[in-house]
What we know:
Layout: H1 12-25, H2 37-44, H3 48-60, E1 64-66, E2 72-74, H4 84-87, E3 96-97, H5 112-120, H6 135-146, E4 155-158, H7 161-172, E5 178-183, H8 187-195, E6 199-206, E7 209-210, H9 212-220, E8 223-229, H10 242-252, E9 259-263, E10 283-289, H11 291-294, E11 301-305, H12 307-318, H13 326-336, H14 339-365, E12 377-381, H15 385-394, E13 397-398, E14 400-401, E15 412-416, H16 422-436
Helix pairs in contact: 1-3, 2-3, 7-12, 14-16, 15-16
Amino acid sequence: MSARYQFAGTTAATISASIESGIRTGALPPGAALPSVRALAAQLAVSPATVARAYQELRQRGVLTTAGRHGTRVRPRPPVAARRSALRPAPLPGARDLSRGEPDPRLLPPIGPHLAALAADVGPSVGYSEAGVLPEVAEAARARLSADGVTADDLTLTGGALDGIERLLGAHLRPGDAVAVEDPGWANLLDLVAALGLRPIGVPVDDEGPIAAGVAAALTAGARALVVTSRAQNPTGAAVSAARADELRALLAGRRDLLLIEDDHAAELARVPLHPLAGATANWAFVRSVSKPFGPDLRLAVLAGDETTVARVTGRTRVGAGWVSTVLQRLVLALWQDPAVDDLVRRAARDYELRRAGLLTALAGHGLTAHGRSGINVWLPVPDETSAVTALRDAGWVVAPGSLYRIAAPPALRVTVSSLAVENLAPLAAALARAVRPGPPSGFAT
């Protein structure tokens, strides 16, 4: 598609503006390949150095990515807002979309009754000077974290997990600093790291979480922050085990030059115990979102950490967004305090576990080893992502290519199981097996 886009400009600034315009209009969609530096320079009658500067500026802002022999491409989620129609390709008619990584809306607790109760008792509007973390919300959050072994003497609230991570990285790091991230890891985090001008260092992951040797290598390479997913890791479903937590805590013990960030985004949906690393380093933060168990539209996360780290995030919030809406805080508190909601969340966790385990078992029946210790995704290694995704699309299944989540990890597919019915598990496993190991091409015999 980029070959048909008319690039323009005679300076690095105008060329980069032209590329951004193409992204906004959808003419350069996520993943689109750009011309080589020399080809675009010849097309625009400018020097290659001018085009190289434009590409470099957009790479530093996280708009473009260089993929080795695959050239320069638009990032899967560039920090440039596109027209809504260009954000996502239209699914094929009748296809089952297992690519989104979202909870099943049918298993989310209804918030209508709690909104109605809140409306009846909302009281006067909160003023600027009175806003902040409500004491009753802080008390409830501390109790929930303490039950999982996380000390939360100091805490604040952010607008979701990624917002909290962005504020943490922005408060401690500067553009050009290195961040150790899981590989494969959360695509949104990889895009955020790029947008902040930080340098990612991939840490290999197995079913028990980040591999200690990989973390050690990242520290040696100069990582100033480490982001670890506690459980339900996206995309692999990894969960930090007790043994791995002990290993990592020993490796990180007492470090004063590293910011440790733990992301417990699945929280109550995770059916495996939490083994936190909180407190292993001098500067640390534990982030727990409410989006997965209670609803993606509830943009709230609890952020606990050491006094300095929490104070930095709180101070930065104060001069920016100010605070998380107290109306939203009270709604989340009502959900936390409702035993019926707890029952619904536990039921959803059981359903997701049955779907995930069922798909893993069905794949094993075809001789395929996949990963999904926790959460709502299954990670299936494949020889070739493009051919597998294409074959599945033709069979009526849409899955996410692993390239969205990888730095140096081998090819794979991410399959979201949250909306799968039990009767779909066997057909899906068979389709995955055919896509991974396609039969001989049809045609005339020779």
